């Protein structure tokens, strides 16, 4: 008999031949029929066990596929080295900075900082809906900036985009009074986005099955860090004609640009020392469950071959 499986294909060497036709001598016909009937009975007895093994193989395949789906959730989010992600984060910030009302006279153009992104990623991996406790500790959040600014956003994985998250911070402008330099509701995310001398930004997003301090599951946890930090004791920028208060800078799209500030150091060799490797659920899935399923599959095949040594494996 032939049986096709999702993983393997088997062929039984003891497949019975066709029943004899009338060309056989009469004295051989009856014994031959009896022999074939016995073989068919044996085949019927073996079918339940084969079906059990087939079912086991199907279950293992489904489990493996479900693990693939779980890992896919994490893999769909961009890394801190993804060029499109970097461009999006920087562009959206600069668009909001260039269009403040009232107009800013000293708003710096913002560029990417890989070390700030490392800090954002390291803290995002902890899946905590609270600010990084190392932002004000020298050398802990950045090799040169101290303190470091930070904005957080957490939401559904399917709804995440860097543009949507940053826009939600900027939308707090409706709660901010520039004249009084006061907030009617939370507006600190907005003031950090448009803080005049915060000229570096680094962002990261991480998939969290659960974020402590945030209701909901399977979330995208997005963090941006800023250098120098904003939100301290004054208005976020000075008003006036665009770039009129940036001596020596180039004015580009209402923002003050400077070659020194635009420099990006990609291989500083710095990493936050508090970012200790941790094995989260995704890590456990890859390092433990998938090898375990592979082992179970091998055991199932071995049991099948031990039970039915007459069955061969075909590609």
Spell the H/E element sequence. Answer: EEHHEHEHEEHEEEEHHE
User: Which sheet architecture does the biggest sheet show?
Assistant: 4 strands, mixed
- How far apart are the first and last residues' alpha carbons, in Å? 16 Å
Spatial arrangement of strands, main beta sheet: 3-7-8-4
Note the beta-strand portion.
15-25%
Radius of gyration: 33 Å
Which stretches are poorly predicted, pLDDT < 50 over at least 5 residues? Answer: 1-21, 67-72
Helix and strand content put the structural class at: alpha+beta
Number of strands: 11
**CATH superfamily membership of the largest domain:** CAP
Q: How would the global form be characterised?
A: elongated
- Please bin the fraction of helical residues: 25-40%
InterPro entries: Allrgn_V5/Tpx1_CS, CAP_dom, CAP_sf, CRISP-related, V5_allergen-like
Family: Belongs to the CRISP family.
Organism: Crocodylus porosus
Keywords: Membrane, Signal
Descriptive report:
The protein is α+β, with helices and mostly antiparallel strands and 315 residues long. The protein folds into 2 domains: 83-271, Pathogenesis-related Protein p14a (3-Layer(aba) Sandwich), CATH 3.40.33; 277-310. The chain contains 7 helices and 11 strands. Strands 3-7-8-4 form a 4-stranded mixed sheet, sandwiched between helices. It starts with a strand and ends with a strand. Its main location: membrane. Residues 84-234 form the SCP domain. InterPro entries: Allrgn_V5/Tpx1_CS (IPR018244), CAP_dom (IPR014044), CAP_sf (IPR035940), CRISP-related (IPR001283), V5_allergen-like (IPR002413). Keywords: Membrane, Signal.
């Amino acid at each position: 008999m032939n049986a096709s499986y999702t993983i393997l294909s088997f062929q039984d060497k003891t497949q019975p031949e066709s029943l004899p036709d009338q060309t056989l001598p009469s004295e051989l016909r009856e014994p031959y029929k009896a022999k074939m009937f016995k073989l068919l009975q044996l085949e019927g007895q073996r079918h339940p066990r084969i079906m059990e093994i087939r079912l086991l193989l199907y279950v293992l395949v489904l489990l493996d596929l479900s693990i693939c789906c779980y890992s896919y959730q994490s893999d769909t989010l961009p890394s801190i080295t993804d060029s499109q992600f970097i461009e999006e984060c920087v562009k959206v910030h600069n668009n909001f900075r260039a269009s403040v009302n009232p107009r800013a006279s000293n708003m710096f153009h913002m560029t990417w900082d890989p070390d700030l992104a490392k800090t954002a990623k390291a803290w995002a991996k902890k899946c905590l809906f609270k600010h990084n406790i190392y932002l004000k500790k020298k050398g802990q959040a950045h090799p040169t900036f101290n303190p470091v600014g930070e904005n957080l956003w957490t939401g559904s994985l399917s709804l995440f985009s860097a543009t949507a998250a940053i826009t939600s911070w900027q939308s707090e402008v409706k709660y901010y009074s520039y004249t009084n330099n006061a907030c009617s509701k939370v507006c600190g995310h907005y003031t950090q986005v448009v803080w005049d001398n915060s000229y570096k930004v680094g962002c990261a997003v991480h998939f969290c099955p659960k974020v402590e301090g945030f209701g909901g599951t399977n979330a995208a946890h997005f963090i941006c860090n800023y250098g120098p930090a904003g939100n301290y004791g004054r208005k976020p920028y000075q008003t006036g004609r665009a770039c009129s208060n940036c001596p020596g800078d180039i004015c580009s799209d209402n923002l003050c640009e400077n070659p020194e500030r635009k420099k990006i150091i990609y291989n500083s060799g710095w990493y936050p020392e508090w970012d200790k490797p941790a094995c989260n659920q995704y890590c456990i899935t890859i390092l433990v469950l998938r090898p375990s399923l592979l082992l179970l599959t091998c055991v199932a095949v071995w049991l099948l071959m031990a039970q039915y040594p007459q069955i061969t494996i075909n590609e």
